[in-house]
From TrEMBL:
Membrane topology: Multi-pass membrane protein
Keyword Transmembrane listed: yes
ATP-binding as UniProt keyword: no
Record GO biological process: heme A biosynthetic process
Record's protein name: Heme A synthase
Amino acid sequence: MTDREQKYKPMVHRTALLVVLLIWPLIWVGGLVTTYDAGMSVPDWPNTYGYNLLLYPYKTWLLGPFDLFIEHGHRLLGILVGLAAIGFVVASFWSEQRRWVKGLSIVTLLLVIVQGGLGGVRVLLSDRVFAMIHGSTAPVVFATAVGAAVVTGRWWQRNQGADETGSADPAVSEGGSLMPKGTLFLVFFLTLICYAQLVLGAKIRHLQPNDSPVWFLYTVWAHVVVALMIWILAFVAWYRLRKISDLALRRPGVILVGLTAIQITLGVVTWVVNYGWPSFLQWLPGTNGHLIVSKDFVDAMLVTGHVATGPLILAAAVVVGLRLLRLQFLSRHSVS
């Protein structure tokens, strides 16, 4: 069965969307674990202090130390994501006719399993390198789940290319030209840059004992330069997407620019929280340039918000990229 013959399957899309809606809070809680340096607050895995993960006393979890609360909660939320991913696979094989979507559901489940395994290895080995890898692969899982939600959604099925009269979809602009030339390449390049930025951020978050100050400085400067690149690319992508009539593309473009602006602001706040004010701003009142060693709850949430917003930018780029790819494919086939 071709995409054009495939009908919208609500259960498949809803389960894919559920996976997305659970993974992002999981990333947030995982970021909070790193912010509070609580990754080893539970020293065993897959058990929690010898208990089966699901049978750990809830009073000890809820009323115990905050480090234990967020680390054990991170594991429980991970189980929910796994169950939702299994549900996505079952729903896909039950009603989805497109084989490649069934394959995508399996890939999503496997990525969730691998991600959980990486978290377990990080605990068993007490290794910060695996913590960095675990943090770098989480956005890949999230982006894959977002892609699955896109290709199973109403918009994907509604844009079937040519209508009964053989004319192209209105979203496909004149002359078979879908968009300003190079827009699709621009968006996919932006997606790659966004992921590279997340890897740099994970490197900064999970410093190794043998990392030199010079290496750290270079990594931070690369992080800043790439952030500016993302801002420029996101703005250019939004400017180009404005010329396409379909709101399903224009709105994610606006979201992409907005999230990038928020992320840059949170990045500045994160630097101040972690390392104090830059030396050239120390003349301002209240900016003594001191190093903040401990974080209060608000500071921790701001820092973690910076971590969790990055995958949202990546996800917005994936949404735009997949929808542009879909329309370009339909444009070529409608013209031919």
